């Protein structure tokens, strides 16, 4: 009789379960479930999910603090990219309590009453979001590095020391912030998260140590301009000054054109003779090709990498054939690159009608090794017959030379390396062709002629007609 009553009690309990526990598909959330410590039992599924979303939004609104060198940067967790990974967790949990037969659901309900369950929400912070936030918010704390500088004063190098810079390491600080926030979320986010910024050192591109290694002459070369006009001498002085003091770190390239342009009077240049289309014409900056040539020869002796070099259209007289280098806009340029592991310093200047380039660095080549560059002429071409332009502005019978003749030439340049005086290497660097050009004169009319001759301005215009880039050079 007692067992019968016990069985009946169980039946009544299960019947009560049928009433109190929702069948599958019901909107009611079982008693004993919570989210983030907030009870959701008895709510509809939709209301429970809204409550969970509010909890997640509350987490996103929590404060995180980055301490940077004594200053505080405050932000919201949501600014890093907070993600709710398991948004369907409440619906899944409710379904777990709605599945099974009547007895199984009854047992689950009783267990839930005895041991309430806080539904775990998986919230993560974007690693990239944290790093990007730190990079932007902490950019103002960057102290830039200061490069060392070097000058040559009274024959001695003077180095101004470099200084390291500092900046917030966005990657390391972002990772620390992400970890701290996720740990705080797991613990219930009871108080603001605080992390110390990870600092990093910014090294200068040019250090004191690197520039202090510049002590030795790697190559030096001089050319003479004693026969040049005052304007051409001015151009050599101005152009050389714009290259003087250039420092090339390993792998860096110097462009003669980039250093010296624009060739304008506003940039200090004067009008002097230059080559154009096989003729000599006046041009602002005329003569600066001698700078390119002198630099080229110093670079050869220093065994720099010659990145770009072209010969003149006509021969020049201040260096052997094939040892010249022309400047003509971007069409012709001299570019040298530092092939060494240490920096080099380019010194340039004029003194007593001599132009000199010297390249300094750290000498690593053996003392018993010498380098020589040998010019070889392969053939010559005689200049054409002289050309005369009649100029009505000249006196009858007067004759003025506008341009000297130029013999054409084909030549090449060899690099010769010797060890203890014995040749161990001979390398052909390039082969060049130089145009032949006639002498050009302006002549006055014969004594009996007074008409039909060009004014001098028109003679100049005819001489300057042409279409190719101008080379800033002449004798």
User: What is the gyration radius calculated from CA atoms?
Assistant: 43 Å
Structural class: alpha+beta
How much β-strand is present in the residues? Answer: 25-35%
User: Number of DSSP strands?
Assistant: 27
What attributes does this structure have?
475 residues, alpha+beta, Ubiquitin-like (UB roll), 4-stranded antiparallel β-sheet, 3-stranded mixed β-sheet, 27 strands, elongated, disordered N terminus
Describe this entry's structure for a reader.
The chain is an alpha+beta fold and 475 residues long. It folds into 3 domains: 1-59 and 87-118, no CATH class; 61-86 and 121-149 and 160-207, Ubiquitin-like (UB roll) (Roll); 213-464, no CATH class. Helix content is 28%, strand content 31%. Residues 1-27 and 450-469 have low confidence and may be disordered.
Architecture blueprint of SSEs:
Blueprint (H helix, E strand, L loop, with lengths): L1 H19 L12 E3 L2 E2 L5 H16 L2 E6 L2 E6 L5 E3 L4 H10 L3 H13 L2 E3 L3 E3 L1 H11 L11 E5 L2 E5 L4 E4 L1 H17 L6 E4 L2 E4 L5 H5 L3 E9 L5 H14 L2 E3 L4 E3 H5 L10 E6 L2 E6 L4 H13 L3 E4 L26 E3 L6 E8 L2 E8 L7 E13 L5 E4 L8 E5 L4 E12 L2 E13 L5 E4 L12 H9 L11
Parallel strand pairs: 1-6, 3-11, 23-27
Antiparallel strand pairs: 1-2, 3-4, 5-7, 8-9, 10-12, 13-21, 14-20, 15-19, 16-17, 18-19, 20-21, 22-25, 24-27, 25-26
Helix pairs in contact: 1-4, 5-6
């Amino acid at each position: 009789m007692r067992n019968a009553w016990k069985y009946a009690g169980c039946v009544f309990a299960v019947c009560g379960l049928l009433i109190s526990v929702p069948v599958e598909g019901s909107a009611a959330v079982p008693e004993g479930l919570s989210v983030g410590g907030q009870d959701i039992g008895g709510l509809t599924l939709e209301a429970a999910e809204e409550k969970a979303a509010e909890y997640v939004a509350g987490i996103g609104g929590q404060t995180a603090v980055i301490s940077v060198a004594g200053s505080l940067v405050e932000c919201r967790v949501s600014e890093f990219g907070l993600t709710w990974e398991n948004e369907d967790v409440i619906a899944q949990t409710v379904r777990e309590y709605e599945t099974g037969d009547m007895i199984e659901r009854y047992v689950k309900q009783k267990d839930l009453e005895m041991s309430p369950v806080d539904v775990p929400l998986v919230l993560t912070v974007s690693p990239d979001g944290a790093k990007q936030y730190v990079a932007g918010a902490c950019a103002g704390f960057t102290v830039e590095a200061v490069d060392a500088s070097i000058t040559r004063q009274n024959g001695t190098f003077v180095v101004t020391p470099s200084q390291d810079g500092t900046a917030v390491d966005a990657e390391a600080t972002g990772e620390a912030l992400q970890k701290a926030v996720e740990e705080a979320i797991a613990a219930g986010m009871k108080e603001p998260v605080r992390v110390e910024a990870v600092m990093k050192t910014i090294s200068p591109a040019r250090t004191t140590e690197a520039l202090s290694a510049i002590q030795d002459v790697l190559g030096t070369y001089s050319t003479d301009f004693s026969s040049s006009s005052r304007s051409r001498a001015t151009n050599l002085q101005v152009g050389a000054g714009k290259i003087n003091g250039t420092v090339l770190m390993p792998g860096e390239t110097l462009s003669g054109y980039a250093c010296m342009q624009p060739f304008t009077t506003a940039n200090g240049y004067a009008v002097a003779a230059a080559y154009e289309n096989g003729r000599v014409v006046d041009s602002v900056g005329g003569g600066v090709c001698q700078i390119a040539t002198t630099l080229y020869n110093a670079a050869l002796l220093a065994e720099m990498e010659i990145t770009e070099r072209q010969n003149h259209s006509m021969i020049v007289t201040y260096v052997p054939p094939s040892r010249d280098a022309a400047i003509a806009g971007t069409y012709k340029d001299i570019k040298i690159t530092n092939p060494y592991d240490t920096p080099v310093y380019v010194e340039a200047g004029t003194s007593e009608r001599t132009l000199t380039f010297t390249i300094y660095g750290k000498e690593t080549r053996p003392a018993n090794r010498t380098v020589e560059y040998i010019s070889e002429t392969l053939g010559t071409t005689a200049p054409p017959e002289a050309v005369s332009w009649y100029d009505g502005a000249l006196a009858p019978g007067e004759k003025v030379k506008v341009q000297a003749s130029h013999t054409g030439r084909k030549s090449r340049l060899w690099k010769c390396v010797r060890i203890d005086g014995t040749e161990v290497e001979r390398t052909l660097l390039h082969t060049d062709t130089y145009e032949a050009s006639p002498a050009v004169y302006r002549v006055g009319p014969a004594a009996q002629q007074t008409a039909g001759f060009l004014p001098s301005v028109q003679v100049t215009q005819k001489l300057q007609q042409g279409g190719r880039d101008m080379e800033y050079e002449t004798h």
